């Protein structure tokens, strides 16, 4: 690929990240369609249908992402461009507005019980994409503004502990028995989820308490960032309750549950069956691109700010989304994240697709597979 051709592709991809507006607009489009053609209860599921039905098809049609930034000529320049910096930050006001409007529609629109369920599911899916996924990008950065915006996005889906546990827990212990977000070989999604919910929230408070005690501070004081962010969640819950009663509370908590469950399903597929080998000194080998499943389908890469280039992210967690690279030597998922989420929901199908890939990856050292089933 020539330098000029690569530059053109990078420029096209830069503005293609504006596709993040699509999930935010899908619920609005669904209501406009319902007003025009009727069937509101069916169209309440429109966002879910597009994300998990249409996106996987377009992923296959568009194929893989051919753009890998050049370390010498592209990375430094792209890392400083303000367009990439501001785009994730703008998701906070956009998602906050969608959430309030979504609550209004939930209460005022002529949905049946099925339609209300579909609407909560749809808003929660948007929360997983434009809320938690964007927050994941922001909480890794050094800028206090980015960290705080990430924390507020997580607070809007009642999962602020992720800000602490993901950085100080998951990235330290990834692909080891100590990490609740690294799924074991043969572990089903439904075994994984309760363990992940409980341990990730608990670990967040333990890690924050440990940080404050090292500084000689009380874990119950105002220096505990989780008190602030979960406090914001409580304020949101109160606001929805005052506005629309117990049904407002149900909407807020329901969309939160969908959003953070989607996060944990993605965690499940990102590290399934992979683990760092234990060294002779008792420590685990350092994290490399080999310890995360990679997926390089173009549309979902744009849709998720390159979360699918997860191998590079774990090896170099400070890298900004626009300069994450694809590694051919990383273990590769057979499809984009939307397709893999659907597979994970059906454990026999998931094992049929993924277990042979895990076994092939550990060919010659099959003992690694039994070791990976040890739980912390």
Main features:
376 residues; mainly alpha; 17 helices; 0% strand
Weakly predicted, low-confidence segments: none
List SSEs in N-to-C order.
HHHHHHHHHHHHHHHHH
Shape descriptor reads globular
Largest sheet: none
- Could you estimate the helical fraction of the residues in percent? 55-70%
Which assembly state applies to the chains in this document?
Answer: single chain
Structural class: mainly alpha
Tally the helices: what do you get? 17
The count of domains is 1
> Between the first and last Cα atoms, what is the distance in angstroms?
47 Å
Beta-strand portion reads under 5%
Summarize the model shown:
Helices cover 66% and strands 0% of the residues. It has 17 helices and no strands.
Report on the architecture of this protein.
- This protein is mostly helical.
- It is 66% helix and 0% strand.
- The chain has one domain (3-371).
- It has helices spanning 3-16, 21-37, 40-43, 46-62, 75-80, 82-89, 91-108, 113-139, 144-155, 161-173, 189-214, 225-271, 298-303, 310-315, 337-344, 347-361, 367-371.
- Helix 9 (144-155) packs across helix 12 (225-271).
- The mean pLDDT is 91.
């Amino acid at each position: 690929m020539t330098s000029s051709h690569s530059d053109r592709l990078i420029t096209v991809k830069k503005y293609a990240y504006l596709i993040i507006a699509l999930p935010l607009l899908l619920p609005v489009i669904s209501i406009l369609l319902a007003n025009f053609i009727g069937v509101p209860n069916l169209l309440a599921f429109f966002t879910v249908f597009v994300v998990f039905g249409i996106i996987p098809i377009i992923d296959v049609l568009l194929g893989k992402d051919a753009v890998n930034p050049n370390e010498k000529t592209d990375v430094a320049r792209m890392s400083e461009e303000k367009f990439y910096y501001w785009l994730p930050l703008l998701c906070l006001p956009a998602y906050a507005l969608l959430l309030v409007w979504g609550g209004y529609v939930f209460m005022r629109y002529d949905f049946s019980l099925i339609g209300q369920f579909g609407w909560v599911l749809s808003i929660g899916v948007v929360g997983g994409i434009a809320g938690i996924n964007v927050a994941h990008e922001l909480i890794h950065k050094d800028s206090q503004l980015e960290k705080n915006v990430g924390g507020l996005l997580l607070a809007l889906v009642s999962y602020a502990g992720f800000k602490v546990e993901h950085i100080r827990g998951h990235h330290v212990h990834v692909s080891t028995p100590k990490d609740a977000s690294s799924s074991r070989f043969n572990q089903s999604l439904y075994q994984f989820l309760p363990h992940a919910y409980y341990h990730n929230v608990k670990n967040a408070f333990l890690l924050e308490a440990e940080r404050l005690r090292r500084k000689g501070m009380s874990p119950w004081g105002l220096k505990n960032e989780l008190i602030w962010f979960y406090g914001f969640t409580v304020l949101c819950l109160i606001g929805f309750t005052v506005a629309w009663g117990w049904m407002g509370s149900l909407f807020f908590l329901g969309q939160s549950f969908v959003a953070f469950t989607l996060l944990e399903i993605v965690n499940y597929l990102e590290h399934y069956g992979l683990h760092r080998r234990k060294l002779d000194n008792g420590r685990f080998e350092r994290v490399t691109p080999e310890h995360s499943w990679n997926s390089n389908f173009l549309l979902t890469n744009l849709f998720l700010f390159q979360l699918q280039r997860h191998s590079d992210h774990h090896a170099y967690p400070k890298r900004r989304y626009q300069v994450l690279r694809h590694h051919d030597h990383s273990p590769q998922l057979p499809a984009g994240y939307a397709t893999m989420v659907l597979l994970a929901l059906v454990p026999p199908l998931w094992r049929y697709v993924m277990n042979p890939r895990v076994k092939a990856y550990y060919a010659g050292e099959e003992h690694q597979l039994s070791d990976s089933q040890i739980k912390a």
